[in-house]
């Protein structure tokens, strides 16, 4: 756990999202980016970063909006097996 760490999501110039954490001044980390879209300071910063990096674009956008109802629905729609697993069957 990183004390005093920031979890952030940036919208990059190409429209993609970058999820990161920093213990330094936040402005230094995001100076090169276009838009800070979400910022949190939590005790589970590292764990949350790892989870968010794996999320789909739709889930990240619901999280950014604070739309936890949509986030819950998107999480429920996830299939138990990936397309790669189904192709192997």
Question: What's the short version?
Answer:
The protein has 5 helices and 3 strands; from the N terminus they run ββαβαααα. With 89 residues, it is an alpha+beta fold.
Please outline the helices and strands.
Layout: E1 6-11, E2 17-22, H1 26-30, E3 35-40, H2 45-54, H3 57-65, H4 68-76, H5 83-88
Antiparallel strand pairs: 1-2, 1-3
Encode the helix/strand succession as letters.
EEHEHHHH
Oligomer: single chain
User: In the residues, how many domains can be counted?
Assistant: 1
Molecular shape: globular
Secondary-structure class: alpha+beta
Rg on CA atoms, Å:
15 Å
Mean pLDDT reading? 77
How many beta strands in the DSSP annotation?
3
Going by CATH, the architecture would be 3-Layer(aba) Sandwich
Question: Which strand-content bin applies to the residues?
Answer: 15-25%
The major beta sheet can be summarized as: 3 strands, antiparallel
CATH fold topology: GIY-YIG endonuclease
Q: How many angstroms separate the termini?
A: 40 Å
Helix content: 40-55%
- Please write the CATH class name: Alpha Beta
Question: Unreliable segments (pLDDT under 50, ≥5 consecutive)?
Answer: none
Notes on the protein architecture:
- By secondary structure, the chain is α+β, with helices and mostly antiparallel strands.
- The chain has a single domain (6-82), classed as GIY-YIG endonuclease, CATH 3.40.1440.
- The protein is built from 5 helices and 3 strands; from the N terminus they run ββαβαααα.
- The chain has helices at residues 26-30, 45-54, 57-65, 68-76, 83-88; strands at 6-11, 17-22, 35-40.
- A 3-stranded antiparallel sheet has the order 2-1-3.
- A hairpin with a 5-residue loop joins strand 1 (6-11) and strand 2 (17-22).
- The chain is globular and about 35 Å long.
């Amino acid at each position: 756990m990183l004390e005093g760490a920031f979890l952030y999501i940036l919208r990059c110039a190409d429209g993609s999202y970058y999820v990161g954490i920093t213990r330094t001044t936040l402005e230094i980390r995001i100076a090169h980016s276009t838009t800070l879209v979400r910022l949190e300071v939590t005790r589970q910063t590292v764990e949350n970063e790892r989870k968010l990096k794996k999320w789909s674009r739709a889930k990240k956008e619901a999280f950014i909006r604070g739309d936890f109802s949509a986030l819950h629905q998107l999480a429920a729609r996830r299939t138990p097996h990936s397309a790669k697993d189904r192709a192997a069957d």
